[in-house]
Amino acid sequence: MNKEEWLKNGYVTEPVDKTLDLKAEIDRLRKEKNAVILGHYYQSGEIQDIADFVGDSLALAQWAAKTDADIIVMCGVHFMGETAKVLCPEKKVLVPDFNAGCSLADSCPADKFAQFVKEHPDHTVISYVNTTAAVKAVTDVVVTSTNAKQIVDSFAKEEKIIFGPDRNLGNYINSITNRNMLLWDGACHVHEQFSVEKILELKAQYPDADVLVHPECKGTVAKLADKVASTAGLLKHAINSSKLNFIVATESGILHEMRKQCPEKNFIPVPPEDGTCSCNECNYMRLNTLEKLYNTLKYEWPEVTVDAEVAKEAVKPIQRMLEISEKLGL
Ligand code: 13P
Ligand code: SF4
What we know:
- By secondary structure, the protein is an alpha/beta fold.
- The protein has three domains: 3-100 and 285-305, NadA-like (Rossmann fold, 3-Layer(aba) Sandwich); 104-188 and 312-327, 3-Layer(aba) Sandwich (Rossmann fold); 191-269, NadA-like (Rossmann fold).
- Helix content is 43%, strand content 14%.
- It has helices spanning 3-9, 22-32, 45-50, 57-66, 78-87, 103-106, 110-118, 133-136, 148-153, 167-177, 196-205, 219-222, 231-240, 254-261, 290-299, 308-328, and strands at residues 35-40, 53-55, 71-75, 92-94, 124-128, 141-143, 161-164, 182-183, 210-213, 227-228, 245-249, 266-269.
- The strands form three sheets. A four-stranded parallel sheet has the order 2-1-3-4, with helices on both faces. It has a four-stranded parallel sheet with strand order 6-5-7-8.
- Helix 4 (57-66) packs parallel to helix 5 and helix 5 (78-87) packs across helix 16.
- The longest helix is centred in the last third of the chain and has 21 residues, at 308-328.
- It binds 1,3-dihydroxyacetonephosphate and iron/sulfur cluster.
């Protein structure tokens, strides 16, 4: 075991025996250790297929909050692991690769956000779940793209609100709730890559297709959408729609579940603006592999930790989100 090398690289670097049946071994380890594997829709298809639960950010937090497993393996990005750890401080929370960060969470450094909050003491602070635990610790209520509208709507119209860190989601929620929330100027580098031009090109090829857009995309892109929603919301729309073609403007991992649920329908990923590839993948989400997942379970590392003082504050706005979502049936 070369722990120094693991620490330097941010994941267990032990080579995996090529003759192993990895899926069977992952299954054996998860049973032996009473571990649950949670996977986000942006993971590779093979990770989604082996996960105990696959879902959007809200569902991952909800499952983490109610699991009776001893170990939670979060196949997603680091802030998702932190959210699980804050909700379940007594459990071991593992992520296959510590380098799986998030450009949106990075666009909101906790010290600068705390200063911004301090400068607006009369504002309620609403933060998107794509933030560090330290940002959540200075937040009143957390939201995901599934419940953001309803949670914002639960405040009086005259309430002064700070919304961070995603300016695109914030602008979108402002437009559909008729508000003027004060926005933090952050964004996701994956969703910012979607362009009007590429969608119009695809629309010319598939004129009858529905355009599905994640609200982390720019407003000009969201304006072209037949449906703007979270990953789970876009999936639901595709399942319930009578359309056969769908142009999908979000990380292409969601197409795996869309194709599984709707094998008779055609899902077309929108390529990024710079045209370097045919679909748009999150380089952080895609750091997780079956080999790293296996090593994580085997060696129980990397383990997510959150400072106890930070966790004590961060859990409050997350619990508040879960309570409101439960009341709303989300
Ligand atoms: P949802 O799964 O909540 O739609 O979020 C997308 C995302 O960017 C997660 O990082
Ligand atoms: Fe973060 Fe964007 Fe990747 Fe989601 S797609 S994890 S918001 S960088």
